[in-house]
Amino acid sequence: MDPKAPQLNLRREVGLTGAVALIAGTMIGSGIFMSPQYVLLAIGSPGASLVVWACCGLLAILASLCYAELGTLICESGGEYIYILRNTGPSVAFLLIFSSVMFVRPAGVVGIALSFARYAVAPFYADCAPPELLVKCVAASAILLLATVNCLNVRFAMSVQVFFMVAKVFALLVIVIGGVTRLIQGDVLEFEDSFANTNVGINPIGIAFYQGLWSYDGWNNLNSVTEELKRPEVNLPRAVLIAIPMVTLLYVLVNVSYLMVMTPAELMSSSAVAVTWGNKVLGSWGWIMSVAAALSAFGSLNGTFFSGGRVCFVAAREGHMPDILAMAHVHRLTPSPALIFTTVISLLVLIPGDFQSIVNFFSFTAWFFYAITISGLLYLKIKKPELPRPYTVPFIIPILVLLAAIFLVLAPIIDNPQIEYLYVTLFILSGILVYIPVIHYKLCPGLLTRITLFLQLFLEVAPADKNL
Fold it and tell me: Which burial class, exposed, middle or buried, applies to 159 when counting CB atoms under 10 A from its CB (0-12, 13-18, 19+)?
């Protein structure tokens, strides 16, 4: 804890391949195997669901381009937290990190872990739903395993990410090729009146986008680890322009393949779309899709852990979290205390976890802070145009992303108010009750210092400085 002691740094070990794997490998997770039925259920028609998937991809591309400019302008890890801190101030940034650490990030981890667990146990319960307790135990095991991997070694964690990205891209290509094969054979369902029964209300469109954007979540992951990225001014924009269009194309083609094989009613009633598709196309080899979906979710969970721990680490370094979370292991140079803390919170959220509600409220909270972040980019473009920008986007792009974010936050609430949205809003604002006494007035008891010193010795960690 001596401020004069030599500081540690997290190494720049993420190259372009690792950067693409971190974005694409996190995005391609459980969503594309679970969300299609929810998107179709919300929007009502196959044609409209494909439009939603394409629009979600376009929004992710535009938003990530805005983040690429922010990431090359503010070369610090932490993603939207650090951007809001630098542009808006510490109070709003603390509300973000409070809701992120206590709800948004753990909710994302739990949603992906539950998806992995359901697909992992699905082959053993072919004729019935698996016990919920078993699903949660498997999800908890996955969380603990990946927490250990990320605490041990950065390169190993990135190697895991690259391997699973290749595996999941291959799995999606199998689905696409299977659909093309059925099309060539002529054994496909007709796309007549594909836009019939479309739900054009504000709320169903908003919910459909929430479910679709869940599958694209991870587009901003690279901004959370900027300080560990080699040549961020070059590799950040390149990775974004490679990964997200590739994922968007795959998602649209995979959904077309689903609709070629299953009727809308079959797709909406399926509890595991990829497994149902596999049983129809691959026959006795249909179980392969369960394995592929489980591996895909596992890789996405690894990427979420990798970036999520860094956000917590950066917030502690800025004084918004306990000091122990801003430390790195003295030998492995991983932010192990932050990763352990994220694991504990995720396991607590897992206890009452429910996939669909997690997706809706995760998306609502996330896009609220995305809107604030994009507003910061517009502020920098207007008020500080002289700042050096290795990469820049046209002014119209952040405006379009901001309008979309405002729609995603307000539309479902206005069209169909639910008390849960009020609870989430109150939860975010409750961070003020922590910020004023603990952060602003620094009313920290001496006990916290003694606990920090004990954990520092026990975990073999030391304060880590910025890697700029």
Answer: middle
Residue recorded with tokens 């008390």? 419
Alpha-carbon distances, residue 154 vs 150, 310, 350 (angstroms): 6, 12, 26
What would the DSSP string read from start to end of 27-53? HSSSHHHHHHHHHHHHH-SHHHHHHHH
Spatial separation of the C-alpha atoms in residues 468 and 466, rounded to whole Å: 6
Instruction: Please write the tens of the pLDDT for every residue from 268-303.
Output: 887 678 778 888 888 777 778 888 888 888 888 888
Task: Judge contact between 42 and 199, C-beta under 8 A.
Answer: yes
CA separation for the pair 148, 172 (Å, rounded): 28
Identity of the residue numbered 120: A
Confidence (pTM): 0.86
Q: Round to whole Å and give the CA distance between 21 and 25.
A: 5
**Backbone angle region of 135, left / alpha / beta, with phi > 0 → left and psi within -120 to 50 → alpha:** alpha
b/e string for 236-257 if b means 16 or more Cβ within 10 A?
bbebbebbbebbbebbbbbbbb
Whether the CB-CB separation of 381 and 361 falls below 8 Å is answered with: no
pLDDT digits (tens, 9 = 90+) for 27-45: 887 678 777 888 888 888 8
Structure tokens given for 313: 């680490």
